[in-house]
Specification:
Bound molecules: S-adenosylmethionine
Order of helices and strands: HHHHEEHHEHEHHHH
Number of strands: 4
Structural class: mainly alpha
Number of domains: 2
Radius of gyration: 24 Å
């Protein structure tokens, strides 16, 4: 029988860092999915990112590299390794690192290492030298594989993630960020739409330039990720706003905010135009 490898989440987590970053997210007003559409029970991205990572990475006690010749765990070396995994997680949960490829690549390499290690040592499905996604399996175990190979590896061999109650889409979004195949579903069409906008539509336009004439005129070397799509959303969003103002703006006369209106929280304040 394949031995059970305990995952990091079953043993220890850097809870202080995860809690701090999850709480900080509430005050982020720019670039957070909550600014796309309100969803009431949205889970913090930092917590989802941490939970997914720690559910896929082996705890060092279960990693054959931290065993002595007699099979016992070398707790000292395993402890050092656990501290390293904690510091990877502490960087990973920071909002500022959400799109930091260096940090994300390191996290993806760790996930790939755990999967490759189980295939080589536990199931003996692969040998160390066997070529997987263009690199020897050993390179994934030793975190030597190139990021492109790691990404290909994860799509093929990492377990896909499905959140059947996806709500604001935090779990599938973070699974996708970690390079995993991600799926979401929900009873309510509003979360379905939000999650489609988060994880299904952007990848279709990944690395493509915007189509609007203004951004296209100032073409840069290359548009990476969802930059081109974001540029179009901003451009056409502004266009729609301008058109709406032109056509129906007169129905919404300018209102002068008076001191009485500001003070009149108890009753309906008089509106002066
Ligand atoms: C607490 S929210 C989920 C939060 C989400 N996991 C996140 O990270 O943002 C629970 C979701 O479950 C959905 N739900 C409730 N009952 C359901 C059912 N029977 N089938 C599918 N979705 C359901 C609700 O519409 C709601 O969006």
């Amino acid at each position: 029988m394949t031995p059970h490898r305990k995952k990091l989440i079953e043993v220890a987590l850097p809870l202080e860092a995860i809690n701090r970053e999850s709480a900080r997210e509430k005050s982020i007003r720019h670039g957070h999915p909550s600014t796309l559409h309100l969803w009431w029970a949205r889970r913090p991205l930092a917590a989802c990112r941490a939970v997914l990572f720690a559910s896929l990475v082996d705890d060092p006690d279960s990693d054959p590299h931290f065993r002595r010749a007699d099979g016992s765990v070398d707790e000292d070396r395993a402890g050092v390794r656990r501290a390293e995994l904690f510091s990877i997680m502490e960087a990973l949960v920071k909002w500022e690192n959400s799109n930091n490829e260096k940090v994300l690549n390191q996290a993806r390499a760790e996930i790939a290492a755990s999967i490759a290690s189980a295939k080589v040592y536990d199931s003996k499905e692969w040998s160390k030298q066997q070529t997987i996604c263009g690199e020897p399996a050993w390179n994934f175990i030793c975190r030597l594989a190139k990021p492109a190979a790691v990404n290909q590896f994860l799509v093929k061999y990492a377990p896909p993630v499905h959140d059947p109650f996806c709500g604001g889409g935090s779990i599938p979004l973070e699974a996708q960020r970690l390079g995993l195949r991600a799926f979401g579903s929900d009873l309510n069409p509003v979360p379905v739409l939000i999650t489609k906008a988060l994880i299904e539509i952007p990848p279709k336009f990944a690395n493509m330039p915007p189509v609007n004439p203004e951004s296209n005129a100032r073409l840069k070397d290359g548009w990476t990720g969802a930059q081109g799509l974001a540029e179009d959303v901003r451009y056409y969003g502004q266009w729609m706003r301008n058109e709406a103002e032109k056509r129906i703006g007169h129905l919404y006369p300018k209102v002068k905010i008076t001191e009485e209106m500001v003070a009149g929280s108890a009753g309906v304040p008089p509106v002066k135009t």
